[in-house]
Write a structure and sequence with these properties.
Its main location: membrane. It is found in: Cell membrane. This protein has 13 helices and no strands. It is mostly helical. The chain is 76% helix and 0% strand. Helix 3 packs across helix 13, helix 4 runs antiparallel to helix 10 and helix 7 runs antiparallel to helix 10. It folds into 2 domains: 49 residues; 168 residues, MetI-like fold (Orthogonal Bundle). It is flat, with a radius of gyration of 24 Å.
C-alpha cells in the first residue's frame, strides 16, 4: 500500500473520529437540558434554589398537579391544538394550490405574484403587531380565535408557497400531459396527480407549519386578552411572570409543554426525513 493511500486512510479515520465526537457532544448538549428540566420539575422550589443541579432528594409530583390546575393547562393545550391544526391545514392547502398555479401556469404576472409572496419572508411579526392589532380591533375580530388564525396563516404562507412551488416545478410536464389526454380537468390533475406526487413536500410543510404554529407566542399574547383564548406558550410564560415565581411549577409546566412536541416528533420524524431526502426544494 502506497504512502498516499495510508495518508488518505488515516485522514478518513481521523475525520470519522471527529464526526463521532461532534455527534456525541451535540447529543449531550441537546439531551442534557431536557434531563435536567425533567428531574428539576420533581423538586420543590426551596430545593431548586439551594442547588439547581442536584438530583431530587424525593419525588415531588405535586408540582404537576398544581401547575395543571393553576395554569389551566388543559384549556391552553386544547387551544394550542386547535390553532396549530387549523392554521396548518389551511396553510398547507393554500400553499400547495398556489404552488401548483405558480409552477405550472406561466402568465406574465406569475413571476410578480411569486415575488410578492416571497417578499413576505422579509416581514417580521414585530413590525406589524401594532397595525395588525388596530386593524383587527376595527374589524371586530380582536380577542377572537379568527383574529389569531389569520396572522398564523398569513405569516406561514410565504415559506410554504416557496417550498411547494419549488417542488412542483420539478415534476415532469409529461405527467400532466398524460392526465390531460385522459380527459382530466386541471382540478382533477391537481387532486389526483399533483397532490399524491407532492406527498413528501406536504409532509415537510405540515411539520414545519405545525411546529411554528404550536410554538408561536407573540400573536396570541398581543391579540388576545381572555385566558380561554390563549395558547400553551403564553400560559407557560405566566409562571415566570406575575402568576408565580415557583421554579418547580415553572419547570413542571415546561415539561408538560414539551411532551406534545416530543410525541409529535416520534410519530412524524420519518416523514420529515423522507421530505428532505426526496428534495423538498427542487429547482
Amino acid at each position: 500500500m502506497s504512502s498516499t493511500s495510508l495518508t488518505r486512510q488515516k485522514d478518513l479515520v481521523a475525520w470519522r473520529v471527529f464526526s463521532y465526537i461532534f455527534m456525541v457532544a451535540f447529543t449531550i448538549l441537546t439531551v442534557a437540558p431536557l434531563v435536567w428540566l425533567f428531574y428539576s420539575s420533581l423538586k420543590p422550589h426551596p430545593e431548586i434554589v439551594r442547588n439547581i443541579f442536584a438530583l431530587p432528594r424525593s419525588i415531588h409530583t405535586a408540582n404537576y398537579t398544581v401547575a395543571w390546575e393553576r395554569g389551566r393547562l388543559g384549556i391552553l393545550i386544547a387551544n394550542s391544538v386547535f390553532y396549530a391544526v387549523t392554521a396548518t391545514t389551511i396553510t398547507v392547502i393554500l400553499a400547495l394550490s398556489a404552488g401548483y398555479g405558480l409552477a405550472k401556469f406561466q402568465y406574465r404576472i406569475s413571476s410578480l405574484i411569486y415575488t410578492f409572496f416571497i417578499m413576505g419572508l422579509l416581514v417580521t411579526a414585530h413590525s406589524v403587531l401594532v397595525p395588525l392589532f388596530v386593524m383587527e380591533t376595527r374589524m371586530g375580530i380582536a380577542d377572537t380565535r379568527l383574529g389569531v388564525l389569520l396572522p398564523y396563516v398569513g405569516f406561514g404562507l410565504p415559506f410554504m408557497i416557496y417550498l411547494a412551488t419549488s417542488y412542483i416545478r420539478g415534476i415532469p410536464g409529461a405527467v400532466e400531459e398524460s392526465a390531460r389526454i385522459d380527459g382530466a380537468s386541471y382540478l382533477q390533475i391537481f387532486w389526483h396527480v399533483i397532490r399524491p406526487i407532492s406527498a413528501p413536500v406536504v409532509a415537510t410543510m405540515t411539520i414545519f407549519a405545525f411546529l411554528a404554529n404550536w410554538n408561536e407566542f407573540v400573536f396570541v399574547f398581543v391579540l388576545t386578552s381572555r385566558q380561554s383564548l390563549r395558547s400553551l406558550p403564553v400560559g407557560v410564560n405566566a409562571f415566570a411572570g406575575g402568576m408565580s415565581r415557583d421554579y418547580g411549577l415553572l419547570f413542571a409546566a415546561l415539561v408538560i409543554a414539551t411532551i406534545p412536541m416530543i410525541v409529535f416528533y416520534i410519530f412524524f420524524h420519518e416523514h420529515l426525513k423522507r421530505g428532505f431526502a426526496a428534495g423538498a426544494v427542487k429547482e
